[in-house]
Amino acid sequence: MREYKPVKLLSKETASKIAAGEVIERPASVVRELLDNSIDAGASQIIVEIEEGGISTIRVSDDGCGMTREDLELCTHTHSTSKIEEAEDLLHLRSLGFRGEALSSVQAVSSLEITSTREGPAAWKLSLGKVSPARLNKGTTVEVKNLFENFPARKKFLKRPQYEAAQCRQTFVEKALPHYNIEMRYIADGINKLILPAHSSLKERCLAAMSLKEPEELFYEINQEGDGFSFKAVLGSPAVVRSDKRNIYIFVNGRRINEYGLVQAVCYASEGYFPNGGFPAAFVFLNVDPERVDFNIHPAKREAKFEDYKEIHHSLSSTISSFYKQKTVSDLLKESYQPEYTRGFDFEKTEYEAADLNQSYNPAGTKNYRQSNTSDYLQNSTKTYWPSSPIRQIEASAAFQEVSATQHRLSAAAYETSAVPQDLPKSDFKFLGQFCGTFIAVEKNNALYIIDQHAAHERILFEGLKKSLGPSQELLIPYRIETESEKDDEIIRLNLHELQKAGFNISEDKKGLWIIRAVPIRWQGTEKDLKEDLAGAGKDPSGLMHHILARSACRAACKDGDIIDPVSAYNIAVKTFALPEPLCPHGRPLYFIIDRAELFKRIKRT
What string of DSSP letters covers 233-259? Predict the structure, then answer.
């Protein structure tokens, strides 16, 4: 039997160390709290100095309003603060700090010294709990030494000074970004690591603080206002591509927060505009009415609860999406060649036949690429790809008939590109042919257009899927999608209506398990694909469906190295120029243009 131990009150010293451990985790926590105090004090200049990663020394100096002797005597007491007086003040909070725990927590786990003045050079110094006269021209200087020296249980978990210094710098940058009008300096071991003058805009501060290598003209600052909130965002253009979401920063009322949903809003707003599934460099600065947001739910104020979360999410997503749509298309169109005069031709409104095209085109001559005869699929494509009526298919395969991946892909290509309506007018370009098993070349407006056959076919399929995924077909063996967290379940529930409307017969079997009994016939994928699609979902229904449709179109489109017949290649070109945007669903351009002047320049002809 376990030894009996009576309940006892902890000593004041032990209790203060335990409480301090919730606020002060590492040197970067001290930097965060002291910077909050300096910013709240109205400082226009702040200097942060650290030694040995902040473990040995952290010193923060500012030119803020300073403190009196009476303030110094109280400032390290638990729950002493100048920010609020009663609980109701939390509803109107505009300062970064408000709990009155920072300095008391720092003092509990380190050697703390504070020098401050309201009117220099006469000042007061707090050291070892005693206040004495000192000299300081302006503001406050806080010095923290020997962090966790009297708290070995916490100190042994600190990492190397280099790592802790990097964390301190990251905290410094996060505080500097939204407060661009404050001059800030970061010094490590006596070396100036980052000097930030007061900037005139968020864009300037972001470029300087993050040491971004891309040119300034590739970044833009946008803003939007809503009911009870507004935001500014500094966004990199699609030429500024990042491999993950770590370069998406969300700030609310001057604090950086970890809010997965708002990061996803940025991701889905930019999806389709960045090549190869890349992510944007984005800095979002939200200002929310204090009565509509609560930061008092996390010791480091890293989380927040919003009263108008859906409105903020929608506004952020739609505004950023509109920006990228306008920016990406305008950039691409600027590169196109527009001659002063183009001769017109009268074309009959009939489909081109193979005999009308370049008779010398011979895909059989390109031996280095995969060859597939798409004409075999043209005759039967309407029978195999489109059913004449809704069906209930239960075949040997769980999802679709057993067809090789290449055949299925090219069958889809043949159907989508050959069945052009008879009333479609002839094109205003000259078809030149396919080459390298990857590109389609046409002459248009005295310029050479090189079309990426996969990207173009993918976008053509994507536009068709947006209109209809076709009827549902039942699965012989239902898909079982197991989620990893309650948040994943919530995301699927938010998108359930859109999924069912699209033809996915999906229902929640139990907590953490979803059953899919039917899928749309035009959806291309497997159980694993659908699980990945749902796992990569966000809270925006349109974003989820875009993701699912884009991946389906990508899987079904002809691939690099697929030799397609001239009729199909021509029809891909026709439909490419009729698309609303010259971009694939993942953001890659469908074609690039070499104008007459460039061609002449390349062959040294004038």
Answer: EEEE-TTS-BSSGGGEEEEETTEE---
